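REQUEST ID: PR-0412
SUBMITTED BY: lab tech R.K.
PRIORITY: routine
TASK: structure prediction, single protein chain
INPUT:
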Amino acid sequence: MPDVLDTRALLAELLSKHGIHVDDADPALAIVALNRLVLEKSTDQISERIRLELKEFEEGVAKVQRRAGQLVAEEFNDHLSAVRNSLQTDITLAGAKANEIVYRIERANSCPVMIRWTVIGCFFALVMFTIGVLVGWGYLPHARLAWNRITQAGNGDLGPVARTATDYSGELPIQSSVCKFD
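STATUS: complete
OUTPUT:
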């Protein structure tokens, strides 16, 4: 608002719109000037109060933001520590499992275990050798028959062993007459 009140323009407008003629020295103009001063003072007080309230509101918002930030940071740190604890537990369990595996491998490769497997291997080798001897014993009558034929000649004739395949009449000395050469 301008500091100087244009009283002539107000008086002209009052005359044209309402048909009321007022002088420059009329006390009604003093009331208008007084109202203007009261209104300016009230407006200044209200604007100052609004400015103060707005400043307090902004400070309150800043406090709320700081507090909300602190709460979010605390919650984040809580979750972060929970994740850290979970990872540490997983790492500890993995280390324990790895130690168990290493222990089992060392135990499997220890001397008593190696001796045990060596004894088991020797035992099964002996079993296989015995089976071989028994199977060979089953063929022993055929071998005796062949040996008797070889030694029947008596005076240096080795019998069928010294003969070549073309000299041989068809029977093998060890086998029966089922197998014949053509």
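NOTES: The helical segments are 7-18, 27-108, 111-138, 140-151.
REVIEWED BY: pending
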